[in-house]
Design goal:
Strand content: under 5%
Helix content: 55-70%
Number of strands: 0
Distance between the termini: 35 Å
Largest sheet: none
CATH architecture of the largest domain: Up-down Bundle
Shape: globular
């Protein structure tokens, strides 16, 4: 019964929409709308130095290991050993757990705007208790849907991505065009500078969070075995998703900036306010509750995609002997139920931080920054691994390859992604002056201590692992260095440490 879910195959369009749903969230538009015309520069800059390198590198690595499980654990582990591979998949899982309350905050705000009294809607959206309750309801709903299996996840994510993200984004752009065509006054200065004022350091700080908006394109690597002909179809799905992502962000941000003055932009409420203002202008205010419901459904779909993805990756790795048997328990259709429950408990505890933070907006920002930091550590390892494997696995089959000959292009693409990630990592520690984040001591403490604890945890778990943790039905294939040579983290020969398969020198190199 545990293998039933594996018979489900995802189509190219379904996976592309799952990628868009996982990557794109309209909740990020207000943060960038504060920059006016120069927001386009930030989107394009981040796309060039992060989104495109991520999509290309993930496509090569996923196609390279299309017949092996693990996602980023496999990619990083093949290059730097099991410890760092475990760190990579751990960071992908834990950062998504920390991210849930932030995206769900936007979902709670969307639901608050279902009412017809705008002032009361805004008051409700700012209420911490209301936000906490709605966050937990949406999250646990996503968890229970995930327990139904990949087939349910794919259907809800596909529909939710269209209804809650792509259609609202297109509608926002259309409303902006109609507004201007009917003589509406643009609140955004399109005669301003495309290039931001780099003399003001604050301009870079909040913009660093744009990397999180683009994060997640590699997550499809976890589903590489769930798609037909992955060597061809996975890269295709990634590129389709990337193009849609950039277009949605740039045009959506402009559309929001047209209707809301820069000084009035609020990170959690302005998207709904923007729709409200447009609908009021065309005398169709009754549509506001409809779009609020659609956006809330989009949040559910986005969370569902993430609940199903990283948890599946950490589960597969756990069965290979990296997590205690408790975390390897599944329901009757093979879904990782205990991991989902533990993840839900963590989200519930994190959501209680609403009580101690000065505002919903400050809570939203500090958790977003912590998520960025943790995720960027994983990306730094992923980009470095792609370069390293070009030399360590020279003869391995690469159905999708960055550059037809030589390694110059992989150095450029992965190096660009590495440098972009490192820049964003450094900037993410600095509190943005545009937002009241409360006490700076709390800000730095949460970010620094949070990073240290989360990064240390997988090394402690790895050191404590026992042979009994390895599941008898694990399908996790050994690393190439376990089959052929020596372990990169110990230097010991395969004869002293492999316990999974006999040596087979024809599998990789």
């Amino acid at each position: 019964m545990a293998n039933i879910g594996k018979t489900v195959k995802l189509g190219v369009f379904t996976l592309a929409i799952m990628n868009v749903t996982a990557v794109v969230s309209l909740r990020g538009l207000p943060a960038e709308a504060e920059y006016g015309l120069s927001s386009a520069f930030y989107y394009l800059f981040a796309a060039i130095v992060f989104l495109i390198p991520t999509a290309l590198v993930a496509a090569e690595l996923a196609a390279m290991f299309q017949d092996k499980q693990g996602g980023v654990f496999r990619w990083v582990g093949e290059a730097f050993g099991k410890k760092f591979g475990f760190l990579a998949i751990w960071l992908q899982w834990i950062e998504s757990t920390i991210w849930y309350p932030t995206v769900l905050t936007f979902g709670a705000v969307s639901i608050a705007f279902i009412g017809m009294d705008h002032s009361q809607d805004m008051l409700l959206a700012s209420n911490k208790i209301y936000t906490l309750v709605v966050v937990l309801i949406i999250y646990w709903l996503a968890t229970f849907i995930s327990l139904k299996g990949l087939n349910w996840v794919g259907k809800v994510a596909k529909i939710g991505g269209m209804v809650g993200t792509i259609i609202p984004a297109a509608l926002l752009v259309i409303l902006a065009i109609v507004y201007l065509a009917m003589g509406g006054q643009s609140q955004m200065d399109f005669s301003g500078d495309f290039l931001p004022d780099f003399s003001k350091f604050d301009n870079l700080v909040l913009a660093a969070s744009i990397f999180l908006f683009y994060a997640g394109m590699e997550m499809g690597g976890i589903h590489v075995k769930d798609i037909n002909n992955p060597a061809k179809n996975y890269p295709k799905a990634v590129f389709i998703g990337s193009a849609i992502t950039v277009i949605i962000f740039i045009l959506g941000t402009f559309s929001l900036g047209i209707i809301i003055p820069q000084k009035d932009i609020n990170l959690t409420q302005s998207l709904l306010e923007g729709f409200d203002n447009y609908f009021s202008f065309i005398r169709m205010s009754w549509l506001s509750p409809v779009i609020a419901v659609a956006l809330a459904f989009g949040v559910l779909a986005g969370v569902l995609t993430w609940v199903a993805g990283p948890s599946k990756g950490i589960f597969a790795v756990g069965k290979a002997g990296y997590l205690p048997p408790f975390f390897q328990k599944t329901n009757k259709i093979g879904v990782q139920k205990n991991i989902l429950y533990i993840q839900g408990l963590a989200v519930t505890l994190l959501s209680l931080l609403f009580v101690v933070m000065p505002s919903v907006q400050s809570f939203y920002q500090i958790l977003s920054q912590l998520t960025v930091l943790l995720y960027l550590i994983m990306y730094l390892m992923m980009f470095a691994a792609a370069i390293y494997l070009r030399y360590n696995m020279k003869k391995a089959d690469r159905p999708f390859r960055i550059g037809s000959k030589g390694n110059g292009l992989i150095w450029f693409v992965a190096g660009l992604g590495f440098c972009g990630s490192l820049l964003a990592f450094i900037l993410s520690f600095i509190p943005p002056s545009q937002i009241s984040t409360g006490n700076n001591t709390v800000w730095f403490s949460v970010l620094i201590i949070g990073c240290i604890v989360v990064v240390a945890a997988p090394f402690i778990i790895y050191a404590a692992r026992k042979p009994s943790w390895k599941s008898e039905d694990t399908e996790f294939a050994p690393f190439h260095w376990e089959e052929n040579t020596t372990a990169p983290e110990t230097g010991t020969t395969i004869a002293t440490q492999t316990e999974q398969k006999p040596v087979n020198k024809n599998t990789t190199e």
